[in-house]
Design goal:
- This protein is mostly helical and about 450 residues long.
- It is about 75% helix and about 5% strand.
- The chain has 14 helices and six strands.
- The strands form three sheets. A two-stranded antiparallel sheet has the order 1-2.
- Helix 6 runs antiparallel to helix 7 and helix 9 packs antiparallel against helix 10.
- The protein is elongated, with a radius of gyration of 50 Å.
- The N terminus and C terminus are likely disordered.
Amino acid sequence: MGVTGPPGPVMDRDEVDRALARLGAEHEAIETSLLALQDHAGRRLLEGAALTGVTRDRWVSTEASITLLWTYFDAYTDALRSARDIRSRRRWSSREDLAELTELLRGGSVTVAGSAMATANAPTLHGGPGKLSEQFTLVALVDRMNDLYASSLDMVVAADAVWSALPARIDLLAAELQRTRKLAHSVGVRPGEHPAGDDLERITRVLTNLREQVVSDPMAFWSPTPGSSAPGGGRPDTTVYDREARALEDVRREIDAVLTVRQDAEQRLVRLRDVLSRADRTLAEARIARGEVLAKIAATEVPVVSGPPTVLQEQLAAAAEYRRQAQWHRLSPLLESLEQKAEDELLRARESLTAVTAPLAVRAELRGRLDAYKAKIARHGLAEDPFLIERYDAARRMLWSAPCDLRVAEGAVLRYQQAAAELLRAPAVRGEPEDRRGEDRS
């Protein structure tokens, strides 16, 4: 929709003809735009819908604006027709004709008589209360139509964009929701029995309400683009839809997990029994080892070995019962919990065995150290040294007797090591008496 030139002095015939040509082209463009607006799918939907909220208020104003647009256009058409009639009176217009044409084309000679119904809800030119009639220049009238057209088209395009985008997507999501509900029901995921079942009920309610709101109040779901002056500048607000779509995807993953449980439940139960059995055997081994340590090692603290937790066996029995009754939604979280607890129990049993057998490990380390030094002494030809034999026998008796005092035994091994080290550092010739070595040096 264009804009005419500025007003000026009395126009000559060429100026009048050019102005009429521009006005004619402009009239045709305006009429095309108004007819397109009148035939716009969004306007037809707005006209026939039961609107609420923001959309209802906006449509009352927009509908009045469209009515006023046609009133203004009719006035514009009458003014253009009058100008053409004056110009067609004679081939060479007189001075009086040109003055009249100048006033009509550039002056404020267009009177628009508006009814209260047509102008009550439409915005006025100066933002004040509506008048029974208004005076316009053709330029001002076109500007006024441009403003009303832009605001009306903006509302129509926005509503149509929301209606084109959201209801169809909501319907697709609702169809997916129904398929998910059937699948959930088949594996026992029901409201009141499983959180995912409650989530499905909540998503169903939200989507039902969302669709009703989108249909009756589309403008509540429109996000204008900041700074955009183009009609329909913005996008549908899909925040609620996106949130529920993500929630449904979470539920679907939960149901997939339940389906996975149904497929490999027996294998997982077998693995659980194996892990718990290994933990029990390890604890039994730890209890036997504790008795051995208490019998063979003296003056040491040996931790108490607890028995296997009965609660895990009870939960394992409950899991087997859930599988037998095909209660997959109950079995899924229980198996996940049991698998972690079983691994923790096996780790605890191994740590208990390690703690209980630590004194035996210390004794074995001392025995190994003693024998290693004896072998080293033998390689240097000192195995028959009486002092070392005495120290070795003392340490060995302590380490191979029960109960063994580890602290005393460790001291005996250390004394044997020290004696062996001193003898190995001695400058004397290995295996010769001390007095003989003295004679050799002389």
